[in-house]
Design a protein that fits this description.
Helices cover 29% and strands 19% of the residues. It has 528 residues and is of the alpha+beta class. Strands 9, 10, 12, 14, 15, 16, 17 and 18 form an 8-stranded antiparallel beta sheet that branches. It has a 7-stranded antiparallel beta sheet with strand order 1-5-4-3-6-8-7, with helices on both faces.
Length: 528
């Protein structure tokens, strides 16, 4: 993909006004309207997807098994809707184990492969499918509560995908184009997080993007789909729910010549009552930012698969000698997803080799798929910085990770003390290392166009998920946190001007049963 001019913001300075509103907000009060709910399409034909796990046939990587493997792990799911094999796959516990006896009605017992701010899960997944023997061509919605596909529109969607993504790169084989569409419900968590909820929801969608791109070896990612074409294809109200990213999937289906898509509008969904009420009370700057992107008039920032390796975007290295990191260990990030969790507690004991592997896979030095490698070369791809407190084999201090050479450069920061956060207990912030995902610096985040601002946070979310998966694979524990002092973090890291920390991940050694969570939620219920 070729670079396009990034464009400077208009006179309204939409992004700058939004960031000012986030900095000015105080602690959000609980919302008075109903809690968020899962989206469903009652009455739509449903195709159950196969489960792996004890007693179930292994997934083959073809047909419905391939789709199931891509989507499995996006939670949460209610215990009473799961088979024993499904719950066993989620928790990693044998179906005869004590976890089943502890599962209470209306509670979730799960391992989360996709973390979410406040467990609100603003992401929705759709499938535009060319057709196969097991699944007819059509447009589907993924019901993550019941792990099934809901048919929204029958017929081959290839013409709509061409409108959404542009002509296929292989026009002689047009029948082989399918896609996963990642949508976000940006107001689903705004009752809890107010203006910051919009930023957080975009990161959550990026986390989901990182998970899906880890699981597919042949996908092509699009971070700037045509918003109007996406709304038309899925029947969305773009102000309430919008497509943020698309993963193009090659398929082996053969489509009859002249097959016309079904243009019947999709059925009406349920589950969006909270979103519409929250939108009415949403921060005006967040709504303005969303509208600016949804109009489709903003210039997209596209990735160059082979950008010049001139290091111009990286700050100059300090005079202090870098830390040469151990050789990267081959890791199975796909297998790590089944046990991926947000840790409830951390302990000392993180080793330099573990940190080196985590940074390599999260920072782009070791990409496991072609799509992830392309993302790592995106002009807006964030960098990784560390505040080291207790890592065996590494002196405490502030460091910048260099993914090209797999080095840690000591920075001019003020030391290892992590910024104070009111979100987690202090013992978590002082164990191991705090990894910051940093945006910047030309242009600074406040000067980005609205579409570039969204892409930056999608990329940030993907880095968050890769960090978490690598942590799971090396036996470390991780906790993503959005609530911290960006000014304090920048000072302690020694960030150059224009660089902004977007999210932090607290890393350490896991404590016993760090990942098994039982959380009372309302996911899985319907408006009815």
């Amino acid at each position: 993909m070729a670079d396009e001019p990034q464009g400077r913001p208009g006179p309204e300075k939409v992004v700058e006004r939004y960031l000012s509103a986030v900095r000015a907000q105080t602690a959000a009060a609980p919302s008075s309207y109903p809690p968020p709910q899962s989206k469903r399409y009652p009455g739509s034909p449903r195709t159950p997807l196969p489960w792996p796990g004890p007693g179930a046939p292994p997934l083959t990587g073809a047909g419905l098994d391939r789709i199931s493997a891509l989507l499995l792990g996006y939670g949460p799911r209610r215990v009473e809707t799961l088979t024993s094999a499904g719950l066993s796959a989620l928790t990693g516990t044998p179906s005869s184990g004590p976890v089943f006896a502890r599962a209470l009605p209306a509670w979730f017992t799960l391992r989360w492969s996709v973390p979410s701010g406040g467990a609100y899960y603003p992401g929705e997944i759709y499938l535009a499918w060319t057709g196969s023997g097991e699944l007819p061509a059509g447009v589907y919605h993924y019901d993550h509560v019941h792990h099934c596909l809901e048919l929204l529109r029958a017929g081959n969607p290839v013409a709509e995908l061409d409108r959404l993504l542009g002509p296929t790169t292989n026009p002689a084989d047009r029948s082989r184009r399918s896609a996963l569409l990642l949508a976000c419900r940006p107001w689903k968590n705004s009752g809890k997080y107010r203006a910051f909820g919009y930023q957080l929801g975009t990161i959550d969608t990026g986390v989901l993007l990182g998970q899906l791109l880890t699981s597919t070896q042949t996908g092509t990612v699009h971070l700037a789909p045509d918003p109007r074409a996406a709304d038309d294809l899925l029947g969305l109200d773009g102000l309430v729910e919008s497509v943020y990213a698309v993963i193009e999937l090659p398929t082996t289906a053969t489509v009859e010549t002249g097959t016309q898509p079904d243009l019947t509008p999709p059925p009406d969904p349920v589950g969006l009552a909270n979103d519409r009420l929250a939108l009415a009370d949403a921060d005006p700057s967040a709504v303005a930012l969303h509208r600016a992107i949804s109009t489709g008039g903003d210039a997209a920032v596209r990735a160059d698969p082979h950008p010049p390796d001139n290091g111009a975007a990286a700050p100059p290295p300090p005079t202090t000698a870098p830390v040469r990191l151990p050789e990267v260990t081959p890791l199975d990030l796909v297998g790590a997803a089944a046990g991926r969790v947000s840790a409830s507690d951390l302990a000392p004991g993180l080793r330099l080799g573990q940190l080196a592997d985590i940074l390599a896979y999260a920072g782009g030095h070791r990409a496991t798929t072609t799509a992830l490698d392309t993302l790592s070369r995106h002009p807006l791809h964030p960098s990784l910085w560390c505040l080291v407190n207790q890592v065996d084999g590494l002196p405490p201090g502030a460091y910048r990770y260099d993914p090209r050479q797999h080095l840690l450069w000591p920075s001019a920061g003020t030391g290892p003390q992590a910024p104070t956060t009111n979100v987690v207990d202090r013992r978590m912030a002082t164990a191991g290392v705090t990894v910051f995902v940093v945006a910047g610096g030309d242009p600074p985040m406040a000067d980005l166009t609205p579409a570039a601002f969204r892409q930056l946070h999608l990329l940030t979310g993907a880095v968050v998920q890769l960090t978490a998966l690598a942590c799971q694979a090396v036996g470390a524990a991780a906790r993503p946190i959005g609530g911290f002092s960006a000014r304090d973090a920048a000072e302690q890291l020694g960030l150059p001007h224009g660089h902004t920390p977007v999210v932090q991940l607290l890393l350490g050694a896991p404590k016993p049963r760090a990942g098994l969570l039982a959380v009372a939620l309302t996911e899985g219920t319907s408006d009815g």
